[in-house]
């Protein structure tokens, strides 16, 4: 298959591109590099011995999207491109709605025009909001609590309406839980710009000495150790979920929703302990107030993905931390070479 991967230079996109290439697919990446470094795809090429056709361009530029899709031959699109920082989305809602929603509309217009009607979309467990009624299944009510999450909900609505209007579309809405880890080579991984918003990259930067201490947001939640519980999923398992979804869409038309999670929850303190074990030294942490908007507990019911796709996550928290650490240790400043001054 020839697959257009939007946002393919990013964290999840680069790992999925690697898996697509390893499965023999042809990949064209469209990414404006707003939150990524093209070195990720250089390394994917090194790891696979195959070429990635990278186009630096913005989904907000409809002519670019039209030109890439107009080259022809595409069987499907995996749409990762988007902005994803929850706090930033509260401060700059218009930037988020424009980038994520308008960017998707441009993509869909290009797909429609050029007859490409198979799409895998990066949705998020964030669409469930602060729903503590775990495990969360795909029928749970959607109630995103911030602009970022609402862009995902709105895009899901747009795609559902599109599928209802035109039965030729094949659309997978993949609701990721908490992606972490890295390819086992340690050559590619998550490279957040500025202060990491998410727990794992923050813990990893403390472990590598870039930050002094992990702040644990709340120790008075109604959970066994008082800290928040999440469903962390290895990025390579997540990448495999995309290939499984693409395969499913090969023989099914319509709009499908699948949670991609492990079905198991880990607390913040369990994550810190597992990462300390992987890194071979105790990671310092201190308790801090709760972060506004955080749910106490969130984990997936992943049984639909297992039943429909035959997919389930294989890697446990220890492997997630070991792989994340291998990447962070070998690349303490991510893809950037630090300025020696
Ligand atoms: P990322 O920021 O590493 O990757 C996103 C990529 O999209 C980046 O390379 C960025 O440069 C590109 N991009 C953004 N806007 C663009 C535009 N207008 N035109 C072209 N390229 C653009 O993020 P990620 O963690 O790999 O996430 C991928 C997708 O999965 C995102 O849509 C995100 O919302 C979603 N998601 C991520 C998580 C997570 O915790 N990482 C969880 C659930 C869902
Ligand atoms: C996990 C746990 C925090 C940082 C977010 C987005 C969601 C999705 C995944 C994109 C929570 C605690 C965190 C820290 C901490 N992204 N924590 N100290 O909040 O489940 O989900 O990422 O779609 O939309 O909201 O993930 O990694 O931020 O937090 O104690 O420095 O770690 O309170 O309990 P979250 P997270």
End-to-end Cα distance, whole Å, is 47 Å
**Bound compounds, please?**
nicotinamide-adenine-dinucleotide, UDP-4-deoxy-4-formamido-beta-L-arabinopyranose
The main pleated sheet reads as: 7 strands, parallel
Tally of separate domains: 1
Radius of gyration: 19 Å
- Low-pLDDT segments: none
Structural class: alpha/beta
Strand content: 15-25%
The counted number of beta strands is: 13
CATH topology, which one?
Rossmann fold
Percent helix among the residues? 25-40%
Q: Please state the second-level CATH architecture.
A: 3-Layer(aba) Sandwich
Quickly count the helices: 11
Please, what is the average pLDDT? 97
The CATH superfamily title: NAD(P)-binding Rossmann-like Domain
What is the CATH domain class?
Alpha Beta
Question: So what's the overall shape?
Answer: globular
Strand arrangement across the biggest beta sheet: 3-2-1-4-5-6-11
């Amino acid at each position: 298959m020839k697959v257009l991967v939007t946002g393919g230079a990013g964290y999840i996109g680069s790992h999925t591109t690697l898996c697509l290439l390893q499965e023999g697919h042809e990949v064209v990446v469209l990414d404006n590099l707003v939150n990524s470094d093209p070195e990720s795809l250089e390394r994917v090429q090194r790891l696979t011995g195959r070429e990635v056709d990278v186009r630096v361009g913005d989904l907000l530029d409809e002519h670019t999207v039209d030109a890439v899709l107009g080259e022809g031959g595409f069987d499907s699109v995996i749409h990762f491109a988007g902005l994803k920082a929850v706090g930033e989305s509260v401060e700059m809602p218009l930037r988020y709605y424009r980038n994520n929603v308008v960017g998707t509309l441009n993509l869909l217009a290009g797909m429609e025009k050029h007859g490409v009607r198979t799409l895998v979309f990066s949705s998020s467990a964030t669409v469930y909001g602060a729903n503590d009624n775990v495990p969360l299944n795909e029928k749970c009510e959607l109630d995103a609590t911030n602009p970022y999450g609402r862009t995902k909900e709105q895009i899901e609505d747009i795609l559902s309406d599109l599928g209802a209007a035109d039965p030729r579309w094949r659309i997978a809405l993949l609701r990721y839980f908490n992606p972490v880890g890295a390819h086992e080579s340690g050559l590619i991984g998550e490279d957040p710009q500025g202060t990491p918003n998410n727990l794992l990259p923050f813990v990893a930067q403390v472990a590598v000495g870039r930050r002094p201490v992990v702040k644990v947001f709340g120790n008075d939640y109604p959970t066994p150790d008082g800290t928040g519980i999440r469903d962390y999923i290895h990025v390579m398992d997540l990448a495999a979920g995309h290939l499984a979804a693409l395969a499913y869409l090969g023989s099914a038309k319509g709009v499908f929703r699948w949670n991609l999670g492990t079905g198991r929850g880990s607390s913040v303190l369990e994550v810190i302990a597992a990462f300390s074990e992987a890194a071979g030294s105790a990671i310092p942490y201190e308790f801090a107030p709760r972060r506004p908007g955080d749910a106490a507990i969130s984990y997936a019911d992943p049984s639909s993905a297992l039943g429909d796709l035959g997919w389930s996550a294989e890697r446990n928290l220890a492997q997630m931390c070991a792989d994340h650490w291998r990447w962070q240790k070998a690349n303490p400043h991510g893809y950037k070479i630090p300025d020696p001054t």
